């Protein structure tokens, strides 16, 4: 999978507020699907579908322990997303700086 494909999958997964909240909850450590489901007004299969999207995007890992499925954040899962956002942030700041310089030069003396 190319970097662009991974970014597209990650941003698609992050577009949903429930999935973002799941990632937030997993910051504290691994949780089972049942533990996650208690926080949402939806069925366990619906939570599993959200987890499948996060897993496909490489943001979450699921490990089977006996009959339980434990979910955790994938190591460095958001590093690529954060790097892309930082690149965009830097580029936009540079553009705004150039615009400010131009406007300062073009501004009539008051």
Provide the domain count.
2
Q: Supply the CATH superfamily name of the largest domain.
A: Winged helix-like DNA-binding domain superfamily/Winged helix DNA-binding domain
C-alpha geometry: elongated
Largest sheet: 3 strands, antiparallel
Walk me through the structure.
With 110 residues, this protein is an alpha+beta fold. It folds into two domains: 73 residues, Arc Repressor Mutant, subunit A (Orthogonal Bundle), CATH 1.10.10; 33 residues. Helices cover 62% and strands 13% of the residues. It contains five helices and three strands; from the N terminus they run H-H-E-H-H-E-E-H. A three-stranded antiparallel beta sheet has the order 1-3-2. Helix 1 runs antiparallel to helix 4. The chain is elongated, with a radius of gyration of 20 Å. The model has no long low-confidence stretch (mean pLDDT 89). It comes from Yaniella flava. This is Metalloregulator ArsR/SmtB family transcription factor.
Strand and helix layout:
Elements: H1 3-14, H2 17-26, E1 31-32, H3 33-37, H4 44-56, E2 60-65, E3 68-73, H5 79-106
Helix pairs in contact: 1-4
Summary of the model, kept short:
By secondary structure, the protein is an alpha+beta fold. The chain is built from 5 helices and 3 strands; from the N terminus they run H-H-E-H-H-E-E-H.
